[in-house]
Amino acid sequence: MGLKKFLDLGKQPIANGFLYEDDKSSEYFFNLGVAFDGDTKLVTQTEYVDGDLMFNDDYVYRGSMSKTMRDHFYSLSNYLKLAYPESKVLEIGSNDGVFIKNFNPKNTVAVEPCGNFAKETQELGYNTYSEFWTQILADKINMEHGKQDIIFSANCICHIPDLDQTFKAVESLLSKNGVFIFEDPSLAEVINNNSYDQIYDEHPHIFSVIALDNLLRRNGLQITRVENLSVHGGSNRIFAKRIGSKIDKTVEQNKAYERILGLDDLDTFKRFAVKVEQSKDALVRLLTNCKKQDKKVIAYGATSKSTTVFNYCGIGPDLIECITDTTPEKQGKLSPGMHIPVVAPGNEIDRSVDYAYLGAWNFISEIKDKEQEFINRGGKFISHVPVVKFI
Ligand code: TYD
Fold first, then answer.
1. Which residues of the chain register pLDDT less than 70?
2. Has this prediction a pTM greater than 0.85?
3. 45 CB near ligand 1 (under 6 Å)
4. What pLDDT sits at residue 136?
5. pLDDT tens digits, residue range 328-359?
6. Is any ligand 1 atom within 6 A of the Cβ of residue 235?
7. Is the alpha carbon torsion for 302, 305, 307, 310 positive or negative?
8. Cβ–ligand 1 contact at 188 (below 6 Å)
């Protein structure tokens, strides 16, 4: 059956490519098309962006920016230390160390192609390879540090175009009973929430358990357990081991649920594409009405997800004045493609703001807790997830 395109999200920039005024003319764009692979059941992009354009020394996404994610990795680390004591741990995509920092540097290896973040973990004493994850790198780590008992990766495996190479390299570096644990946004949740904004350059694939098991199996691994997580708008934590390992019931439960949702069927994605277009029309209509009523609308969280939404819907500074974000590396810059100014929070959720579009809708509870004053004085959030509405 091969690859069948079902969604066109139009011309898109690098989702985390926040830029200065002077860099506007050299901004890179690509066509964001999404397809279903009838053979593996993988949802994947029709064109992959070159890794160096996204993950380099200027990368701005910091995993440790939200308390939710810091707590998430802290409790996972505690669980892993108990469940797999004395393990050698390798992390693929260690970012600013939000996960690996919970482990003793002596038994860990970090892999992070973005030089700015690799330097941070290196300086804290973690063996950090500032390279992309490849078979060559896995072989080098094997020579220098030996096989690894836990290979962990969060929000990174779905960043890598060549999954066969990725999984082969993991399999080659795992110790005999080693476990590969990775978490990424769940396709089931994307379909349930109409969260098409999970699709951007850095997410060339959105994983179902069904597709992952197909891909892992052809590379010597199989899924042994699946945990459904609330982070990042709904993610799956996949546990994979060598073929022949014991499989728990969560694997078949998740696959059965995905079959009910139709994640193995192209027609499901064609229906999704129609809903995505309706979401775009509704959001633009809502923001245009706000503008007509002279309301001040900003966005909350300069996310990669909002890059997809703003560029797909054509939402610029005329509809959203600015975006607040806590990440120092994003502040003072313009949002990719639509060039909405990014500012530090505190200055902008001030008394003049009527509505805040939630770019970071996945952190809604943390944000609501922080913004009680805004809410109490009648300020409202806007989200497109699962349907366009005021919150
Ligand atoms: P995230 O949703 O992980 O983004 P992405 O779509 O890029 O994966 O990132 C959340 C962004 O929102 C991040 O830049 C930090 C910012 N943020 C705030 O500005 N304020 C907040 O209260 C929270 C929770 C996040």
1. 347-348
2. yes
3. no
4. 98
5. 999 999 999 999 999 998 755 778 999 999 99
6. no
7. negative
8. no
Ligand 1 near 61 CB (within 6 A): yes
**Atom 19 of ligand 1, residue of closest alpha carbon:** 325
Protein residue whose Cα sits closest to atom 22 of ligand 1: 367
Quick one: three-class SS letters along the chain? Answer: CCEEEEEEEEEEECCCCCECHHHHHHCCEEEEEEEEECCCCCEEECCCCCHHHHCCCCCCCCHHHCHHHHHHHHHHHHHHHHHCCCCCEEEECCCCCCCHHHCCHHHEEEECCCHHHHHHHHHCCCEEECCCCCHHHHHHHHHHHCCEEEEEEECCHHHCCCHHHHHHHHHHHEEEEEEEEEEEEEHHHHHHHCCHHHCCCCCCEEECHHHHHHHHHCCCEEEEEEEEECHHHCEEEEEEEECCCCCCHHHHHHHHHHHHHCCCCHHHHHHHHHHHHHHHHHHHHHHHHHHHCCCCEEEECCCHHHHHHHHHHCCCCCCCCCEECCCCCCCCCECCCCCCEEECCCCCCCCCCCEEEECCHHHHHHHHHHCHHHHHCCCEEEECCCCCEEC
Both tokens of residue 191? 């379909």
